[in-house]
Amino acid sequence: MNTNMPLYELRDLSKSYWRGGESIHIFDNLNMSIENGDFIAIMGPSGSGKTTLLNQLGGIDKPSTGEVLFEGQRIDNLSQGQLAKWRAANIGFIFQFYNLMPTLTAAQNVELPLLLSPVKKSERRERIATALDIVGIGDRAHHRPRQLSGGQQQRVAIARAIVADPKVLLCDEPTGDLDRTSADEILKMLQVLNQEMGKTIIMVTHDPEAAKYAKTELFLDKGEFIRRERK
Amino acid sequence: MNNFSLVLSNLGRKKLRTALLIISILIAFLIFGVLGAFFKAWNAGTEMAAADRLISVNKINFTVSMPIAYINKVRSTEGVKIATHASWFGGYYQQPRNFVQTFAVDAPSYLEAFPELIFADGQREAFLSTRNCLAVGADIAKQYQWKVGDNIPLKSNIWRKVGGSDAWEFSVCAIFDGNEENIGANYAFFHYDYFNESKSFAKDMIGWMVITSDNPANNDLIAKRIDEMFANSFAETETSSEAAFNKAFLAQVGNISLILTLIIGASFMTILVIVGTTMVMAITERTKEIAVMKTLGFQTGRIFSLVLAESIIISLFGGLLGLGLAYLAVSAIGPMMATAMPGMSMSLQIVLIAIGLMIAFGFVTGFLPALKAMNVKIVDALGKS
Question: pTM value?
């Protein structure tokens, strides 16, 4: 990879939906680039297109027009199968409501992404233990989600997101369901992952306090970036 | 963890629902197993019929007799290897409810025509040389606890002896069995000579003829020759293969095959709808989890396989349990039914068909839910918080 090349590049990105016979524009001709190792907080009011933008970056939704480039390669024109493979290799997702599998233990939830790669069983065990230790929940490995608090569940979700060692973590309101203390712990953890492990983090949030942990704050309103603050 | 443990973890999600699904499928395959064993026993006569054996009966009806003189004419017909005859005696032991299916036969040729009947050492010869010997099938002997040397009186609703008695004295001198499980040993037979001399009417008349052809390929030709030989006589014949005769005989009772097929079909269809609907509901509940798996990078094909595997595992588990229960039921009922319906057992064929059906059942009930799971749209599903 060219070191000068941005990790992500969005070119003239537009997204609109048809709803009730009417075209709803989420954003038009959006252009931006994201550097490797950045920690970006995307903020903005409800309906501003934050999550839609995150979905484009994660390859789980496609733009109406425009291009999404990852390490210089277009991902918006990949097939669903190719995108699934790409996500497994490059992206870790962290959701507001954790989205853990209720029938699996914490360790098994963390193991899920490893089922998609040819990692040996012994190495798999090691990676799961490491991921759970990093998020400080190694002692809860055999607990099921319903036996864990919200903060603990989000830690498991983070461990699941990092276990396959992706380049990017996409976080959709990761602290939206947590109390302040738990939220701060999670955000500190993300900061550590960014600063010490070099993960590029793109986080959608409503919370200005959460955004303070990021290196860059982007303000999106009515489908346009109205401000970019670099700390 | 692997795909299999993922599937198992999903099956354990709602244990009561999974248990009810398994019980539904268990019942379907319990019915299948028991009725399958019954069906097999019912059709055993047709299936076990020898390819080279023909049956010739009176054209009016198989209950109407024909002259014994026919047998010699048939024996001299081209293509006939063996010709024997038998007559219906009926018979019951002590009380009419103790029915014993009994025939009067031309002993030497009958044993020659039915080589599948096996005797203990010396008993075959004892039967041939003892005028009032009753050769008893092993199932009958077991039911009435008869043994060689017993003197048995049998009564007939049809035949009376000269002098008016309806009691016929027999000596059990041979007990026979089939050389295969499906060959019935649920009847008895004795010498025609003893029968003909003792009966008070219809002297020198026989019930039907059994003909062994020199080549199964010549069966139709031989049947035609026999029937033409007795055409325009007072007792015209109708000759057909043993399998066709047995089938026609069973058809008089009714189309049991169709009834059984309808019963099994109805139970399967009902359970198919229940299981299919429940599976669709179960997958709908998990839409968000499936979307998360797809987000993590699980391919649609793998999602499809995982859901389909759930359904096939449920079907196999419930089906094998049902088949196991059917095996126990058939093992218990089979010996009790041996005299009325020999060969009622769970054959390998039934087991293999059932396993095939279980997989097909799992596939059919799982296909739509799997398709639904495969087509889950991540953005839509994750939007439903």
Answer: 0.71
